[in-house]
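User: Quick sanity check before I run a bigger batch. Here is a single chain. Can you write out its predicted 3D structure?
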Amino acid sequence: MLPPMHHANYYYGHAHILARYAGLEDPMHPPRIQGYLQHGWNIGDGMAPGVPFVDGSPLLVWSEQTRRRAWSQGRRDAVVVGSPFAYLLAMDTEPVDETKREGTIFYPFHGWEGQQVMGDHRRLIDELKAHETGPMTACLYWNEYKIRSIRKLYENAGFRVICHGYRGFWWRDTDREFLVRQLAELKRHKRVVSNRLCSAIWYGLLAGCQAAVYGDPMVLEDADLTFGGEPRLHRQWPEVYGYDPDPVVGHRIAVAELGAGELSTPEELRTHLGWARVPVAA
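Assistant: Done. Predicted structure follows.
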């Protein structure tokens, strides 16, 4: 019997992006992935803390860096496949007009269904307005976007406020276009900023943005600090912190962290994900 496809493999439309790159006949309805796909960048083994694993199922991680971290924690079944965002960018055929990039897109640290973030958005807004130039976009995670008071703070400060969509949960309401929208937004902005080092910073750097991490990192309710938390982020990746980090250095690190230099061929990807016998497009 095949192991069940973990619902997190669908988050952000990841399975759909990989199915498209792999050339499946029906990429809008991807088959189960035989393993656990990393669904966000983190400083551990790529998986969310506390996820129960079926013995023998591979961890499908984004990069060699993540594989090594998983190995150091005793997880011997980690396989590097590359991040879905890197595959999406590899398939993107619309060139960016660098002269039309403008302003900053800001991703505040966010919570999720099980944990809320505690912090002062007003302080972040003041710091952003003091250091950023041009039009500003605040991209709120759905969890914060639905809270009208938070949206209004940014709107009243003159920000354009958007949300890329809902990542999905328990196989429901997955927004297949989440990363597609995110890439489109990153391509129109000159800078990407967050108050914590996160996936969006690496995505922005890979997509050609300048990136910066600064401001109050806020606190996640009942945060799991097993891997070191915010202090470790700042300590291990100082190159992306501050108001004006070197984008060349940042891009090089993003390529490594997102596995953009280690992408599989469509045939290899189908093998990694357990799709070797799935029909492919003619």
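Residues 108 and 194 are 6 Å apart (CA to CA).

User: Great, the batch can go ahead then.
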